[in-house]
Every structure is written in structure tokens, then in C-alpha cells.
Design brief:
149 residues, 434 Repressor (Amino-terminal Domain), 9 helices
Length: 149
């Protein structure tokens, strides 16, 4: 979905251009890999348009680009060692449910909004328990802004 920027993230296009430059790839080749028009990529990089969800999925699939970095400027530019949660034995039968949910998240903005809103309400209401659960996990936990200071 093409949307005009409304000041929500003025550096978004600059980060995409930086990623492309780090990869040492032309706009033409980068846009071909992402299956978008070069003119659309140019509009994104010049901050005239905001791409849809599929763009981020393609960037991750093609280049292992960290969506948090692209959208918010947080974290490393590229993700390494990421595994699909559906393949993690820790998720058991929930892994299959996650796998079935992904196409809905990918294709429906209504589902994305509903899932994100529910997740944030749930996290907000259960923050302490969730943080304790995350600390018991063997994967590293990203420090919160308060912990960084």
C-alpha cells in the first residue's frame, strides 16, 4: 500500500538507502530483488512514499534486513541467526498456529492492527510476568531503555 509520508518517521527512506549502499547494490538491482519498480524505490528513498507490509517481508527474505532498524532506527541493520518461530520446538503445537497466522498478517491490514493492539494490551497488562518469562529463556533479552541508562 502506497502512503504519503506524514512526518511519522522522517529518516525511513534514508535508512533504506543506507542499507542498499552497505550492500553495494544499485537501485535497479535492489528494486528487482524486491519485485518493485525502481521509481517506487526512488520515491521511498526520497521519503515521498511509505511501502506496505510486503516490502518489509521481502527485504527480510532477500537481505535479512532488520525491520526494527528500517522502520524505527533501532537495533542492527541486519538480522543473523534468526529462525522462524514455527520451527522452534519450544513452541510445540503453537508453532503450527503461528505458521498458519503468517499469511493473514501478511495480507490483511485489519488482522495486523488487531494482533498488534491485542499484543500491546496483553504485554502492558502482564509486563512483569512476561519479563520474568523472557529472562528465563536461553535467548538474550534486549535491554529496555531504562536498563540502558
Amino acid at each position: 500500500m502506497k502512503k504519503r509520508y506524514e512526518g511519522e518517521n522522517p529518516d525511513f527512506g534514508k535508512r533504506i538507502k543506507k542499507i542498499r549502499e552497505v550492500l553495494n547494490i544499485s537501485q535497479k538491482d535492489f528494486s528487482a530483488k524486491l519485485d518493485i519498480a525502481q521509481s517506487f524505490l526512488s520515491s521511498i528513498e526520497s521519503q515521498n512514499y511509505h511501502p506496505g507490509f510486503g516490502f518489509f517481508v521481502n527485504m527480510y527474505e532477500q537481505f535479512k534486513v532488520n525491520p526494527n532498524y528500517v522502520m524505527l532506527g533501532i537495533g542492527p541493520m541486519f538480522l543473523t541467526g534468526y529462525e522462524n518461530p514455527a520451527n522452534d520446538s519450544k513452541f510445540g503445537n503453537q508453532g503450527k498456529a503461528l505458521e498458519e497466522l503468517i499469511p493473514y498478517l501478511h495480507k490483511s491490514e485489519i488482522v495486523r492492527i488487531a494482533v498488534i493492539n491485542f499484543a500491546w494490551r496483553f504485554i502492558d497488562s502482564n509486563k512483569y510476568v512476561i519479563e520474568m518469562d523472557m529472562k528465563s529463556d536461553d535467548r538474550p533479552v534486549q535491554p529496555t531503555e531504562d536498563e540502558k541508562e
